From TrEMBL:
Keyword set includes Ribosomal protein: yes
Classification via Gene3D superfamilies: Nucleic acid-binding proteins
Keyword terms: Ribonucleoprotein, Ribosomal protein
Identification of the protein by name: S1 RNA-binding domain-containing protein
Region (Disordered): 1-43
Cited SUPFAM superfamilies: Nucleic acid-binding proteins (SSF50249)
Biased composition (Basic and acidic residues): 1-21
GO molecular function: mRNA binding; structural constituent of ribosome
Pfam families given in the database record: S1
Protein family: Belongs to the bacterial ribosomal protein bS1 family.
Length: 270
């Protein structure tokens, strides 16, 4: 065998050994990676460390764990439309400042109350009931509002007052407005009822203005209360009075008439 042939065989043998070694290393690496993936965290402490590390990566060092957890809680408040009772801690241009889970929040003056707020300084130190209406951690923007809560409560109070009005009741109100189909009567407490044109008078009229004028005080009977709508009648009230007057007129019985005639003749002298 020549030297050239020997060198070739040795070279082939070395290449084969290298290939085998590399293949073995690849298999070991794959097994190690699979083992790492399949191995759960050894304890809650390890998990907590991994979670904190992930927060640091997410925030690129900008947010600490407490801040992230605070914004997470605020997001829950927003999604659940929770009502928060907070204290106004500062006054700024066009609004006030409150703290939510340690995060600075802003309530615009237009959302502090249903009514217009002229001076926000009067609100310093006061408690307010608000909802989160905007929460953006990236922009560090937290906006809250009390107005929606107050409107909902006002609406519920009105609904309850309407529900308390019973059919058959007689109420005094003022003509609020006249329409072609009837008149709206202000019954007080922000409640109005419809007095249909057919329920205004016993006579047929074409327009409520023939009998009523705005601001006039009237007595009406409640004839309907359904789905938050109150129906009224002046006509029914007049008819009820007529029936009561007729019932008050006592018609004597036949025996009473006979007795009265007997008493009359008894005193006559023939």
């Amino acid at each position: 065998m020549t030297e050239e042939v020997k060198v070739t065989e040795e070279t082939m043998t070395e290449d084969a050994v290298k290939d085998q070694t590399q293949e073995t290393a690849d298999v070991q690496t794959a097994e190690t990676e699979k083992t790492a993936q399949d191995t759960p965290a050894e304890s809650m402490e390890d998990y907590a460390k991994e979670l904190e590390a992930s927060y640091e990566v997410m925030g690129d060092g900008e947010y600490d764990t407490d801040t992230l957890l605070a914004w997470k809680k605020i997001q829950e408040y927003f999604e659940n439309k929770e009502i928060l009772t907070l204290t106004v801690s500062g006054i700024v241009n066009k609004g006030v400042i409150v703290m939510v889970e340690g995060i600075r929040g802003f309530i615009p003056a237009s959302r502090l109350d249903i009514k217009h707020v002229d001076d926000t300084n009067d609100w310093l130190g006061k408690e307010v009931r608000v909802r989160v209406i905007e929460a953006d951690m990236e922009k560090n923007k937290l906006v809250l509002s009390a107005r929606e809560i107050l409107r909902e409560e006002e609406k519920e109070a009105k609904r309850q007052k309407i529900q308390d009005i019973k059919v058959g009741e007689v109420r005094t109100g003022k003509v609020e407005s006249l329409q072609s189909y009837g008149a709206f009567i202000d019954l007080g407490d922000g409640i109005s009822g419809l007095l249909h044109v057919s329920q205004i008078s016993q006579k047929r009229i074409k327009h409520p203005g023939e009998v009523l004028k705005e601001g006039q005080e009237v007595q009406v009977k409640v004839i309907k209360n359904q789905d938050g709508k109150v129906g009224l009648s002046m006509k029914q009230l007049i008819e009820d009075k007529e029936e009561a007057e007729e019932a008050a007129i006592k018609i004597p019985k036949s025996e009473e008439i006979g007795t009265s005639l007997g008493d009359l003749f008894k005193n006559l002298k023939l």
